[in-house]
Amino acid sequence: MKPDALRGHLDALLLATLDGAALHGYAIIEALQQRSGGALDLPTGTVYPALRRLERGGLVASEWATVGGRQRRTYRLTSAGRKALAGERTAWREFTTAIDGVLGGGPWPTPA
Amino acid sequence: MKPDALRGHLDALLLATLDGAALHGYAIIEALQQRSGGALDLPTGTVYPALRRLERGGLVASEWATVGGRQRRTYRLTSAGRKALAGERTAWREFTTAIDGVLGGGPWPTPA
DNA sequence: TCTCCATATGTAGCCGAACTACATGTAGGT
DNA sequence: ACCTACATGTAGTTCGGCTACATATGGAGA
């Protein structure tokens, strides 16, 4: 997977991962690996800043917890985040429809 | 459509547009509008440099032509470009499969 | 014990592709 | 004369994801 492919779609991935369950950053990375069938292996330097950005935007909220002596910052969707996720899903559908329309299934016939 | 969404997928779009027909830049932009159902309206500042980049990479080749007093640089796929297009189509399928796997159809059930 | 790995979070700085804005010129319609 | 469509192109900005690094705990194994 070329690195730039995710540009503009990362927010949707993070929001979707938090849909239905609050997770901490490291667990989000693992969840993305699993749900993508191993295709997505995001570095921490990508995920953690993105989560802070989403928090600044009010789409997620976080709380600290200590589990087994380890510090965890657990993120959950806010109501604004849920709305944003719905928008992201729609945008994703429109985006893939547009690209699929161009990529089609092969060469286009020369118009008669 | 948020601007960054195209990141990393533009090459595939351009190559696919040239698959089966040689076109000049302006016509490529119009073809992308049509085939995407109006969703893609790429500025010339995006398309022309991208075509030059593809030409530098040997994926397309161009020839000048004069049509109705207007200069046109017509691009066509090279054999390397055809191979690259096949790769791009595969990458696109893998990419959408990965993202769809994460976005799913809604909230994920808590594992029992 | 010491080392290594998995777990867990985070920052600084770079890279580069797509965008904005601009510049240039022809043809045709009003 | 003016505007729009056609047609190509460059300069510079933007900014999000990446690389690389820094930090710290717990557990397994040599």
Tag the structure with descriptive keywords:
homodimer, 51% helix, 112 residues, Tscrpt_reg_PadR_N (chains A, B), 3 strands, DNA-binding, alpha+beta, 4 helices, Arc Repressor Mutant, subunit A, DNA-binding (chains A, B), 3-stranded antiparallel beta sheet
Short structural description:
Two copies of one chain form a homodimer. Chain A is α+β, with helices and mostly antiparallel strands and 112 residues long.
Fold and architecture overview:
Two copies of one chain form a homodimer. In chain A, a hairpin with a 2-residue loop joins strand 2 (60-67) and strand 3. Helices cover 51% and strands 16% of the residues of chain A. The first copy, chain A, has a single domain, classed as Orthogonal Bundle (Arc Repressor Mutant, subunit A), CATH 1.10.10.10. Chain A contains four helices and three strands, in the order αβααββα. Chain A has a three-stranded antiparallel sheet with strand order 1-3-2. With 112 residues, chain A is an alpha+beta fold. Chain A binds chain B through residues 1-9, 12-13, 16-17, 19-21, 32, 35-37, 39-40, 88-89, 91-92, 94-99, 101-104, 106-110, and chain B through 1-9, 12-13, 16-17, 19-21, 32, 35-37, 39-40, 88-89, 91-92, 94-99, 101-104, 106-110. The first copy, chain A, binds a DNA duplex (30 and 30 nucleotides) through helix 2, helix 3 and strand 3. Chains A, B: GO terms for molecular function: DNA binding.
